[in-house]
Write a structure and sequence with these properties.
The structure is a homodimer. Chain A is α/β, with parallel strands linked by helices. The first copy, chain A, has 2 domains: 2-173, 3-Layer(aba) Sandwich (Peroxisomal Thiolase, Chain A, domain 1), CATH 3.40.47.40; 180-332, Peroxisomal Thiolase, Chain A, domain 1. Chain A has helices spanning 25-28, 50-69, 89-98, 111-124, 139-146, 200-219, 235-249, 279-295, 313-317; strands spanning 2-3, 7-9, 15-23, 38-39, 78-82, 102-104, 130-137, 162-163, 166-173, 180-185, 228-231, 258-260, 276-277, 301-309, 324-332. In chain A, the strands form 3 sheets. Chain A has a 7-stranded mixed beta sheet with strand order 1-2-10-15-14-11-12, with helices on both faces. In chain A, strands 4-3-9-7-5-6 form a 6-stranded mixed beta sheet, sandwiched between helices. The radius of gyration of chain A is 18 Å and the shape is globular. Chains A and B meet through helix 3, strand 6, helix 4 and helix 9 of A and helix 3, strand 6, helix 4 and helix 9 of B. Chains A, B: This is Stage V sporulation protein AD. Chains A, B: GO terms for molecular function: acyltransferase activity.
């Protein structure tokens, strides 16, 4: 099941039976509104704090995936998830409501694929029949914690990105119909010495490149094996940086097959600067939009590479650089 | 490999080839000083911040485990770990230095067994030959974040616990000699409505009881199957609460076989109030003291139940209750 040094190949090809995706008002106004199961017009979700709203996003995504998969709560054996908030309280609090045994993860914006990789490994080894995995973020809760409260109105440079308000969850099983998880490559921590928290994409790009190249080597395939290689939230700047790195390394990835979730979710004209970010970015775009396109037959094989910046407000204040990571998971459908 | 609803039984019985345990000055003065591989007389570890010292603790524990296991850095395929600091930066930064692919976890003080459970599953399914898993905490870094800077001199009630400064790591493999990981039970989030962050043990006790009882049911064994059932950091108060709950539920756990790492690590007279806590508490006591006693033949089968309080300073300030979790892993040696 191990290919190369850090890639898992799943011989049982765990099935993504169903997914749930939830978004906020900014996402409802974006390019992919039709791909969300549930959209909220109010950033507060009728809760008394942004953190409580954040928790509800994750609960709803999980409940939606169960509903679409035709499962009751008691049938879900494990939930693997995480978010960006200190001590990942939105996810932990949601898992109290959801009731299933819980494996808390922290991979910043790479959490979606960290969870899908581990979840697929658990199902593949027959250590669960049904499990949920997902990730979430809430723009105002994250901005308040990492930068300034949004009410402060601080200006941002064009390299900054917009944290997605939303959640995406996938229900995995060893049976049923749907896209299948075929392999995963776990990322190393890559730190190129960047220190600007308003340029996460640039900092994360080398981590994405490292993981993609390791994946191709470990599986011994060409980039052309995939119809689409999609990163999590590099944004415009990070996307360009990563393309430059591939060129420099002689990795034959074509611009047409290489996209970024952070550049898909919003419309031209929405004030998102370099693009979207946040754990919910890849979680909602992949579990909504991209799997929908797979089911329509547009892609047979995709490689999702969720990217995460492993800084904290404190590590930034202490003058530390921004270590980054990327986890890659391949999903296949049809044939 | 799945027993019952949420217990994994590892047929390959992954081996704990070697461990590394590191402690600070308070631990050096404690009951288990002889069981640490490395003790620091200075809380700063010659670093310029407590968070950097925290990072070094985890690095050293991992390096010590590799050294004792006779492995080079490049042979370690994955590191699974986490800590209590926002965005688990000490662990992530350490994994940059260590270089191996990294799976970040958040389970608060339950992280040690969350990592050992997942690590054993990965090795058991032949998805890694060698991996490291561990957890760490630093008293002053944690106090500063969760309560007050220690320099403030705030008084605490007798239910409060003392966060361990230290780190414990285990090197797992499918070969070699040593104690073996035989099963794991993943915890559910349990919240009994407690809100006092100075009484974590009391809040965590019901989660420990829930996981232990689920483990015994899933594996269909009596408590007497284990020579020792040891919780992570319930402390005196939580330990008593959990014994009361076992009695109430008719679970036949004897006081002699039921201990708590948080009540073992320090001496009588050290000002630790209800006992020790922190992710490093169970990690250092189990990977140091308890495995040493197993190797001397004192125990053949132990069940380690690491307990975690999933709150954040913000969730406490917002008036939320304290959700808790416990993950259990059985370790066997000899026969």
């Amino acid at each position: 099941m191990l290919a190369g040094h850090r890639t898992w190949v799943f011989d049982q090809k765990p099935v993504i039976m169903a997914t749930g995706t939830v978004g906020g008002p900014f996402e409802a106004d974006g390019m992919l509104a039709d791909d969300f199961d549930l959209l909220h017009s109010d950033l507060w979700l009728e809760q008394e704090s942004y953190e409580k709203a954040h928790k509800v996003l994750f609960e709803e995504a999980c409940l939606k995936a169960m509903e679409k998969g035709g499962l009751r709560k008691e049938q879900v054996q494990f939930i693997l998830g995480g978010d960006l908030i200190n001590q990942i309280t939105p996810t932990s609090f949601a898992c109290h409501t959801l009731g299933a045994p819980y494996i808390g993860l922290f991979g910043a914006c790479s959490t979606s694929m960290e969870g899908l990789a581990l979840g697929a490994l658990i199902v593949n080894s027959k250590s669960a029949k049904y499990l949920l995995t997902g990730a979430s973020s809430h723009n105002a809760a994250v901005e308040k914690q990492f930068r300034y409260p949004t009410e402060y109105g601080g200006q941002k440079p064009p390299t900054a990105q917009w944290t997605v308000t939303g959640a995406g969850a996938a229900l995995l099983s060893d049976e049923g119909e749907g896209p299948r998880v075929t392999s995963a490559t776990i990322g190393r921590v890559v730190d190129m010495g960047l220190t600007d928290p308003f340029n996460m994409g640039g900092a994360m790009a080398p981590a994405a490149v490292d993981t993609i190249e390791a994946h191709l080597t470990d599986r011994n395939v060409d980039p052309s094996y995939y119809d689409l290689i999609v990163t999590g939230d590099l944004g415009k700047i990070g996307h360009e940086v990563s393309l430059d790195l591939f060129k420099k390394h002689g990795t034959a990835i074509q611009e047409e097959q290489y996209k970024d979730c952070g550049m898909m979710i919003y419309r031209e004209g929405q004030p998102v600067l370099s693009g979207a970010s946040g754990p919910a970015c890849s979680a909602t775009v992949v579990y909504g939009h991209l799997l929908n396109r797979m089911k329509k037959g547009e892609f047979k094989r995709i490689l999702v590479v969720a990217t995460g910046a492993l800084l904290s407000p404190l590590s930034f204040q202490q003058g530390e650089t921004i270590p980054c990571i990327a986890h890659a998971v391949s999903i296949e459908f049809g044939e």
